[in-house]
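Aim 2 progress. For SDR family oxidoreductase, the working sequence is reproduced below.
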Amino acid sequence: MEHKKKFALITGATSGIGLELAKLFAQDHSNLILVARDEQKLNATAEMLKAEGVEVVTISTDLFIAGNAQEVYHQVSALALHVEILVNDAGQGVYGKFTDNELDRELDIIQLNISSLVTLTKLFLKDMVSRGSGKILNVASVAGKAPGPYQAVYHGTKAFVHSFNEAIRNELKDTGVSVTSLLPGATDTDFFNKADMLESKIVQQGELADPAVVAKDGYEALLAGKDMVVSGFKNKVQVALGNLTPDSMQAAQMEKVQEPTDTKKKS
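Predicted structure tokens for this construct:
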């Protein structure tokens, strides 16, 4: 295995935090495997990153679909590529009251945010442990630290991801493999558009973080082998205070932040 070129595999790699992470890896001369749905965007992103003098492999697939995460692993294995770093960035939310949202869409969110992430982590992690080296960055969220009215399923999935990260990290001590949990706050990406959340107060009235800054925080924590990083001072304070605040109170606070600017729209 050691004679093979080493690669970092990044899901959700054509926009937002995933794209900014890909840029950081390329600037540090890391070869890349980029995974995303849109083949045209993948190809354009690959061409941009190749300018840094790195090799870029693209895999166009929809991780909302069960079985596609396994297929990503099989494609990488068939190419005999050595994945030294795995970044599970792909994730999505859906906005609205739980009773109003479509069940199928919420189940798709669970498939993407949890099932695909767990699958890719499981498969690539086994290879890393057998080699005795590797790093994984799983993107959670400060949303996972508090119940989230109007995004109940999304917050729940991110709570799972962070808890999962911390658990397997403990299991992996002394293996040479580390798992890092990245917890961004609200970030200026296409997330809110895809979640149909543009009318929420957090978007209309809040401050959205720069995805490049979030990516840098995650990248540095990953390379340092840290267990987790909360990106942004305000988010660090929010998480610290949340550890002392009852869940019911956090839910009420989050409802005020995430409700629509016109509350009649989601009532």
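The first strand starts at residue 6 and ends at 11. This observation will guide construct design in the next reporting period.
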